[in-house]
User: Fold this.
Amino acid sequence: MAKNDLQGALDLLILKTLSQLGSMHGYGIVMHIRRVSDELLIVEEGSLYPALHRMEQNGWVRASWAITDFGRKAKWYALTRAGREQLTSREKNWTQVVKGVDAILRFA
Amino acid sequence: MGLFRRILSLGRRARMEHEIDAELHAHMAMCIDQNMAEGMSREEAERDARLRFGSPTAMRERVSAEDAALGIESLWLDVRAALRVFVKSPGFSLVVVATLTLGIGANTAIFELLDAVRLRALPVAKPNELAELRIDGGNHGLGVSDSQYANFTVPMWREVKEHHDPFSGIFAWRTGDVQVGNPNQSRRVNGLEVSGDFFSVLGIVPLQGRLIEPQDETGCQLSRVVASYSYWKSQMGGEPITAHTTILAERRSVQVLGVTPPSFFGIIVGSRFDLAYPTCTPPHPRGEVFSYSVMGRLKPGWTLERASGYLYSLSPGLFAKTAPDGYSSEELKAFKEFRLAAYAAGAGVSYLRDQYNSSLEILLAITGLVLLIACANLANLMLARASVKNREIAIRMALGASRGRILRQSLLESALLATCGALLGAGVAQPLSRILVRSLDTSGNTIQLAIMADWRVLLFAAAAAISTCLIFGTLPALRSTAAEPVASLKTGERGVAGNRERFSVQRAMVITQIAVSMVLLAGALLFVRSYRNLMTINPGIRESGITVGYFGFPSMHIKPENLAAYKRQIEDDVRAIPGIENAAATTIVPFSGASWGHTIEVGSLDGPSRFTYVSPSFFSTLGIPLLTGRNFTEGDTNDNPLVLIVNQAFLRKYVSAPSTLGIQVRVRPEPQYPARTYQIVGTIPDTKYSDLREDPPAQAFVPIAQLPVTAQGPGMGILFASRDPAAAEVAVWRMLGQQHPGIQMQFLDFQQGILDQLVGDRMMARLSGFFGVLAAVLVVVGLHGVLSYFLARRRSEIGIRMALGASRGRVVAAMLRSASLMLVVGLVAGTLLALLATREASTLLFGLKPWDPGTLVGAAALLAVVTMVASLVPSMRAARVNPIESLRAE
Assistant:
């Protein structure tokens, strides 16, 4: 599996989700992406948690334990300042990638 | 230790893993909640969540792998795991570490020596600013050179001392013996004659007292000295230096000014001075005697090139002013065309460098190759072990270990082994290096070399360890993780044929080993045979039972015109001593390192020839036959016609007429030796002159009684033959001491002196022989291991073949065939490599060409025999495979 190729996209998805929701736990992130993308994008837990922990190491997100709406204790993640900067640059980058891929696809 | 470990692992890792577990657990729980909210039963909801989530352990591993802090901790875990493996298989670990210790130790030892001899800077302030002044291209044998380091005559030094713009300071030095102690118990120690600025230019700070300063350069009588640290410690008891500290030297009480620091040994790398004393300015310095070495410290902003440019423009005036008298116009012209230049001198000067540089480089290459073979062996060992561990690795990968993690663990094991090997190797390197230095000592010279592990040596050992680790660790690690877990789990250890590719890597490694050891064996045979050639060469003169005696009598103040008669008296006295068979006086002792020559004219030809002034008994004492003409007689003195006996090389070079006797030989004048014309009265065969490797040069002998009166000096050499050299030496010492009070005597064994020339060849022969044998042994071990491993892997295949009717002979033949194939490929590659590699050694070889076919065939045959023996044992074992047993075990 081409893990590295999708990693950039996964990071972008997580960062964007957190910027939209403010603060969320892992399960919530998975469900959000799934719902918003109309079940087109399904993030696997096996990729999500390593990515979250890596971002925490990099200082893009910070984590804290809190209670969910349904009374379960969970680890909530929120964007830091560095995370927001990272998001902006990645969003720009993504637009470039999409443009590039689009150009390739349309080439006849 | 156990408690400590537990605290470490209990701390961070346990807490982090606990947190990850909790997070993942919450995730599962929410997933189950959702599933149940969508209407699943509890069991269904849990099953679905688990299916989606996968293995919780693998997941936790993947998450914690992202944690940098945990990464370091897991490294520690891997180290512990590796240590556990070593403890469990002590035999394996011991073999690996011992091999690496020897390999890295030998390499580091040689490098340490190379470092000490060539790379290390002098222990002085800012050594890279030091420059040595020399005549560009040397003095071409003009004049007399006191030692190999002597480049300056006294007048030249005086001139350059006044004109040294590129240098902030400049000094001259030379070595000389100092006689210390009572006259009847005196011994010679290493003296260092230095000009006043020597210590201040070098920036040496005295340990005690003060060092030599310009105002100490007074009379030529030895009056004050500076002791080296080792001399002060061992000979003066390390007593504090005061204004009244004196020692007995040159039969006088001499003031000791101070002591140099322990690290300072002088300028010559490989020897250590004992006493330093100031230079003196003799009233009539001889312009043709080169005695000093001159060095300076470059001023800031001056490079060697700029300094050389300055010296070049200084040279015409300098050499015109210092030209010696008494030479013919040709020699004078050559002298005036000399040009000075500056050379880097930060590493001091060293005869060891010139003598052993290429030997040490070749030895480093040899030990490097041995290490390479050892690495190949270890790689094979690791490969074999990795395939045994295949199942374990497969299970670990199935349980979620990443490939990188297993690779890391495997590399870590190799790295730990290599580190152990490097540490132990660096430890044994120093003693090995010292033994090596001692093996180069000769009867007359002990090498004083500071062998120490400086940063260069440590860097070298570390580099050796890393490269060995990469060589023997990477491949097995990559291989073991490349295996498909499922396939390994299925076949386990009893695969039918095993992976073809894996075998071919091991084959390639055995082929490499054979090729490399072919190079080493060929090299070893070359060096051993070359040494043997040198040992058995006939120098044309009698070597055994000859003692060299040097006699000095400067304190008797004999007039020059009476010296000839006095020397003849001493020779006669020596010959008359009971036990002495024969004795001969000579100005130059063969193989002593000294040489003397004149430029001659024979007819229209001119050129150089060696000149030795000998007594009539010289030829009979050394067993040199007279081919034609007559020997010298007692009547051949300066009052009668001057006569010569010449060797065949002389005749080949200068005489074309069929009858040689009576031919006139003119000698060009030089200081103390006026122009003369000699007549050839006899011829002798060619004999070696000063170097066993050198072809005999053109040589002429003159009766010692015809030595020009101006050239007479208060010293002489006598060769005496006896049955018992030790007893003869004592007898001469006692008798001459009684008959000529005040005479100085020094004795050497003639044969030992010749053998001393060969210590370098002996070292090369011994070491290359040792490493050649070691390489062959390593090949045997490696090949045996690989074949045994093949056998273990193919046991069931062989069983099936035998069950199907293959004879034992065929099984053995198949095994041997695969071994011979490796051997042939290895030998061909090795021969090509040997031809390339041994070219480098050609200058060190004597009487052999590096592509000597006999040597190559010999090495190949030796290796063939060795490999066949090594492969016979596993092959025979293959033939004993019991088909039923091996099939039942499947």
Observations:
- Confidence is low (pLDDT under 50) at residues 492-498 of chain B.
- The first strand of chain B starts at residue 130 and ends at 135.
